[in-house]
């Protein structure tokens, strides 16, 4: 008489597997979080550069027969139409969120002249993460954006 043995995992093997998977997950979460914060800085810089270029293009094409600008503050980037952020038409605002782990320094409000697309102010905007990673967006007097 042949008795076939049941195949499967013992309780000890199952608990050991769960412990190993839990340990690996616990070790990888801090690394993932650091990667995510570093990526947030790059995304903030890229979004700012693209928004500046969009505002410049809209000003050059005299879209809505007005100037366009960008307002960068902690937590958000706003594309606006009007002579200034305070004097803008809020119905045309385009808002982009910036994670709270990112702080900003440098230029805050940039408005581009109609037709020429030249910025009224020049300088840089620096984004810094809570981990110390930085990305800088530079705007020159001709409106060229680099980062």
List keywords for this structure.
147 residues; alpha+beta; minor pseudopilin epsh fold; four-stranded antiparallel sheet; 1 helix; 34% helix; elongated
Description:
- The protein has one helix at 11-60, and strands at 68-73, 76-81, 94-97, 102-106, 109-112, 123-129, 134-139, 145-146.
- With 147 residues, the chain is α+β, with helices and mostly antiparallel strands.
- It has a single domain (11-146), classed as minor pseudopilin epsh fold (3-Layer(bab) Sandwich), CATH 3.55.40.10.
- The radius of gyration is 25 Å and the shape is elongated.
Helices and strands in order, then pairings?
Layout: H1 11-60, E1 68-73, E2 76-81, E3 94-97, E4 102-106, E5 109-112, E6 123-129, E7 134-139, E8 145-146
Antiparallel strand pairs: 1-2, 1-5, 2-3, 4-6, 6-7, 7-8
